[in-house]
Amino acid sequence: MEKNQILNAIKLLRNPENKKNFNQTFDFIVNLKNLNLKKPEEKVDIYTQLPNGRGKKLNICAFVDDSLVLEAKKAFDGVVEKDQFAAYGKDKKKLKELAVKFDFFVAQANLMADIAKNFGKVLGQRGKMPNPKAGCVIPPKIVLAPLIARLQKTVRLQTKNELVVKCPVGTEDMDNEKVTENVMSVYDTLVKALPQGENNVRSVYVKLTMSAPVKVGGGSDE
């Protein structure tokens, strides 16, 4: 995949017909092949950071106890304290509202059992449980600013149950070059994680939130 191919696809998406009255997200889509997702070692589930960020601020919530609550309230967009866990666990509506409001959840490692019990069903279905792969499971004493800065640039690359990986790579108000750099970074990270590298890639697309996908490069999907 060449840089100019990505740039050309992004320019095509800038067609005035695709313009909406909000700042759309650029999504990157990679269709895969020759993988057996029943084998754990052939699944993809990794996190990576976009060099130029996601183009918008993410909302991050922390699950903490008294040892971190003061620092967490200064640093995060939301905080759920340990003594509030049970109330959330009994209120499914409140849980769903929490899951919709925040993009990432960070948790103290010593609280994970209680978090799984009270929040796991709802957050797990949405892929938002605090994940150590993303650095979201933390010790009670930690400097929070670097973690938050990193999460603002983080995306998850995951196959789930289909031979496809999708993730956001920027927004319309970002420069084409910066979106392209993000796409290339994600692609390189993904290829390195695949058992056969680029031989596991069937096709690559970019799209806007409300647009049809545009293929990167030529050729067939076969």
Task: Describe the strand arrangement of the main beta sheet, using strand numbers.
Answer: 8-1-9-10
Helix content: 25-40%
CATH class call of the largest domain? Alpha Beta
Which topology of the largest domain does CATH recognise?
Answer: Ribulose 1,5 Bisphosphate Carboxylase/Oxygenase
CATH architecture of the largest domain: 2-Layer Sandwich
The overall pLDDT, averaged over residues, is: 94
* CATH superfamily heading of the largest domain: Ribosomal protein L1/L10, rRNA-binding domain
Number of domains: 2
Number of strands: 10
Unreliable sequence segments: none
* Largest sheet features: 4 strands, antiparallel
Tally of helical segments? 7
Q: What's the Cα radius of gyration?
A: 19 Å
Shape: globular
- The string of secondary-structure elements, in order, is HEEEHEHHEHEHEEHEE
Describe this structure in words.
- The protein has about 220 residues and is α/β, with parallel strands linked by helices.
- The protein has two domains: about 110 residues, Ribosomal protein L1/L10, rRNA-binding domain (Ribulose 1,5 Bisphosphate Carboxylase/Oxygenase), CATH 3.30.190.20; about 90 residues, Rossmann fold.
- It is about 35% helix and about 25% strand.
- The chain contains seven helices and ten strands.
- A four-stranded antiparallel beta sheet has the order 8-1-9-10, covered by helices on one side. It has a four-stranded parallel beta sheet with strand order 4-3-5-6, with helices on one face. A two-stranded antiparallel sheet has the order 2-7.
- Helix 1 crosses helix 7.
- The longest helix has 18 residues.
- It starts with a helix and ends in a 7-residue tail after the last strand.
- The model has no long low-confidence stretch (mean pLDDT about 95).
